Each structure stands twice: as structure tokens, then as C-alpha cells.
Amino acid sequence: MTSPDGNLFQQQEANRRRTTWLVIGFVLFFAWLGFGGDYVWALQGHHPFPWVGLVLTTVAIFTVWHTYKTGPEKVLWATGAQELIDPKTDAERQVVNVVDEMAIAAGIARPQIWIIPDDDPNAFATGHGPHDSHIAVTRGLLKICNREELQAVIGHELGHVKNLDVRLMTTLAALVGAILLVREGMGRMMRGGGFPVRGGRKSKNAGPLLAILLALWVISWIVAPLVTQLLALAVSRRREYLADAMSAQFTRNPLALASALEKIEGAAAPTTSIKSGAAHLCICDPLGRRLTNSEGWLADRFATHPPMSMRISRLKGMGYAQLKKEGGSSTSFAPA
Amino acid sequence: MWVLLVLVVIVGLWVVSAYNGLISLKNQTVNAFKQIDVQLKRRHDLIPNLVNAVKGAMDFERSTLEAVIQARNQAVKVNASGPEGIKQISQAENALSGALSRLLVTVERYPELKATGNIGQLQEELTSTENRIAFARQLYNDTATQYNTKQQQFPTTLVAGLAHAERTDLWEIEDQAERAVPQVDLSRR
């Protein structure tokens, strides 16, 4: 049972590194967009004080900070989830208990629990890290899963929380949001003529350098959201296997997750209430895409989840290995 | 000269990181133990409720009920001794687990009892409490094992004395039947 541990620390480290690089890349990108604009403008012979850069950077930092803080709530709001504070039915009491149990097993703070009024079985996690996380399950999931299966699914989601996948995703979403917002604002300013890039008075002495810079600058604006989207996809398939392994580590019952996944796949209609923004952290791809069911280069690049059959067979492998070990003599609790 | 200096710095950095790693694990172990304690308290508080709920309808199984109450009181008493008495605590709690599972088996035999009042709810609470205890000690055992392994493995063992690292006992479970206890009733969803 120690193998997921090694993976866990590697993944936590990798996620921390990725988050840092994302933020650094983002700052540099905005510096280029803002101060680059100033430079272009200065080449045209305007006042050299870089106020575009300063304003843009301030706005961007504030936007990112705000989106990062409110991101998880927005994702939950978009799915129509309702927070479960005071459980009334047996099923609700059970899900609260199960989440508490899994939080103990994972050694993290208890996440806030949300219920999505959707009959398709699915679940996802979001938040800022192990101390501040949210977990949402659909009504459909509560209907089809028994206690052990529910436990396994929650374990998978808390795996995403514990290995910092949720923090990376929230950061990424905040950056994409900020870029889109600032681009929108800049576009409006340019169209309104408040930002005289074209047709400057002394543009002749700047020459081709200015044209190249300007072109690069405009292309950066267009490409930025695409690049961030690809970044999100590039890392999302492997992390599903790790979250499965972590669920097995928490529950010591990989077969329960295997049977939960089989049930979920059997009911695989698209989960209409979960938008693509939260797809990376769901238990299964909420969009029910065909791509998810294939292996290969293209699927690796563009699908958010590995094929269900692969995940199930890996979990069953773990389960049988465990049974064989327990059929012997020693157990994981054996006194040293 | 320079090579020596670089070596000293590298060794110094390694000592610091190994020391900090051990201290961090030590604290995690203590924290994980506290978590078991919290869950055991929850169980001790829950048992009087359960006993009250079934008492009226269960004039027959007096001895089963008595056993639960006695085991619970014993566990509460031992629990006050703190982390040093981990062996005694785990023994008392294991006895309580055994008594509880016998009681629950008995309750299962009387469907009309399950249907009345809030026994169903209490059963879910009890299932959950047993699971919490099981998961809390799983986390404790995993963390303690990691801590024990780390302080015994070769280079780290050199700073183990510096960090006052000592082997911690694991939470032991006596027999195979004990280990099945958390699964009180799986027919309920």
C-alpha cells in the first residue's frame, strides 16, 4: 500500500511546480502584453510612460485574485448545486457521514458538500487545496451507489483534493478567465478608438520592427486562451489513474470503485448540468465524449478521462492482488 | 578548500531537511493519534443513545446490553490515560468493538425493532462511527509506519537521535474477525 504514496508526493510536487510556473508564465505574459503595448506605442513617438502596462498588470492581478477566490463557488453555482448543511433524508445523512469518513482516511479537512439535482450519476471536486475544498455529487449517484461504492467515489474525489489537482485547476481557470476578460476590455478600447495603435503620427521612423511587434502582440492575445486550455488537458488523463489509486488506498477496497465505475458507465448519459469547466475533476467525463473511450495520441491530447474499461481493469487488478495477499497470512496492519 | 566548503554546505542542508522531515512526520503521527481519540469519544457518546433506544424493546438480551455498557465504561476509563497507554486503549476498544458487533447482530434478528423509532438512523451513525475509527487508525498506522521506517533507514537514522525520534507503536488488531467489524450492515444504502 505504499506505492500510491510515492506517486502522491510526486504528483503534489508536480502540481505545486505547475501552479508556480503557470503564475510566473502568466505574469510574464501580461508584462509582454502591457509593456509590449507601451513599447509599440513609444516607438510611435507617444509619451513613454508605461501606463498601459501598469494598469493592465494591476487589473489582471486583481481579476485573477478575485476569480481564484470565488472560482469554486462559481463552478458550483453553474451546476445548480445546493450546499448540504442540514441533512434531512437517510441518503443525505449517509453522504455526509461518508464524506466525513473519507476526509479522516485522507487526513484532510472536511470538505463542504454539495448536491446537484441531476439524475445522471457523477461527482466532482473543486476548491483551493486540502484545507478549503468542495465536493459535489449528483442525486443520480446517491440513487445507484451503495455505501461502499459511494465511499470509493468520494475517495477518488478527495484524491484530487489531496494531490492538489483542485488547486491547479482553480488557478488555471482563474488565469483563463482573466485573460478573456482583459482581452474583451482591450478589444472594446481599440474599437472605440481610445487606444490609438494604428495610424500613429510618426510611425514611419519605426518601420518593419513595429509591424512585427504589433503582429506578435495581436497573435499573443488570440492564442492565449487556447494555450491555457491545452495545458489543462495535457495533464488530466494520468491524474485520473492516480486518483483511482488513492481512492483504493483510502478505502482499502479497489473493487468497490470498480463496481461504482461500472454502474456509472452503465448509466452514461451526458451529465447536462456539469459544464466543461468542471469536467477535469469529475469521476467520469460528464460530456460522454467518444474520445474518452479510445487510447492513443489524439485521445491523450484532447480527452479529459482515460477509458473506463482501462480504469476498471486496473482497479480489479489491485483488488485481486489484495485478496491474494490477505489470503496468505500477513496484513497491512501486521505488527512489526 | 572550495570543495570542502561546498561539501560542508551540502551536508548541512541535508541534515536540516532530514531533521525537518522527521519532525514533520512525528507531528503528523501525533495528530493522527488525536484523530483516533476524537472518533473514539464520538463512539463513547453514541453508545448510551443506542442502548436507550433498544433497551425498552430488548428486555430479553440483557446480557448483551450489559456487556456493551461495561465495555464502554472500561474504554472510557482507559482512554483517560493518554497516548502512553496505547496498548491498553486499543485492547479496551477492541473489546468494545466485539460487544457492539454482537449487539448489532442481535438487533438484526428482530426486524420489528429495526422498524420502530430511530434505530435505522442510529445504525447508520454507528456504522459511520465504526468506519471513522477504522479509517482514523488506518491513517495513524500508515503515518506511524512511515515515521518508523524513515527513522530506521540509513542516512536518516543518523539524525534520528537529534530529532528525538523514537519508534511509535502501531494500533494493533487482534484477530481476523475483529477486522470485519466496521462492516456493520451493508444492506442499507
Rg of chain B: 23 Å
Note the gap between the termini of chain A: 15 Å
Question: In DSSP terms, counting alpha (H) and pi (I) runs of 4 or more, how many helices of chain A?
Answer: 11
Structural class of chain A: alpha+beta
What is the number of E strands of chain A? Answer: 4
Estimated radius of gyration of chain A: 24 Å
Mean pLDDT of chain A: 77
Note the run of SSEs of chain B as H and E.
Answer: HHHHHHH
Oligomeric state, counting identical vs distinct chains: heterodimer
Q: What are the salient characteristics of this protein?
A:
heterodimer, A: 336 residues, alpha+beta, 11 helices, elongated, B: 189 residues, mainly alpha, 7 helices, 0% strand
Summary?
With 336 residues, chain A is of the alpha+beta class. Chain A contains eleven helices and four strands. In chain A, a hairpin with a 2-residue loop joins strand 3 (123-129) and strand 4.
How would you characterize this protein structure?
The complex is a heterodimer of chains A (336) and B (189). Chain A is of the alpha+beta class. Chain A contains eleven helices and four strands, in the order ααβαβββαααααααα. In chain A, a hairpin with a 2-residue loop joins strand 3 and strand 4. Chain B is mainly α and 189 residues long. Chain B contains seven helices and no strands. In chain B, helix 1 runs antiparallel to helix 2 and helix 2 runs antiparallel to helix 3. Chain B starts with a helix and ends in a 10-residue tail after the last helix. At the A-B interface, helix 3 and helix 5 of A face helix 1 and helix 5 of B.
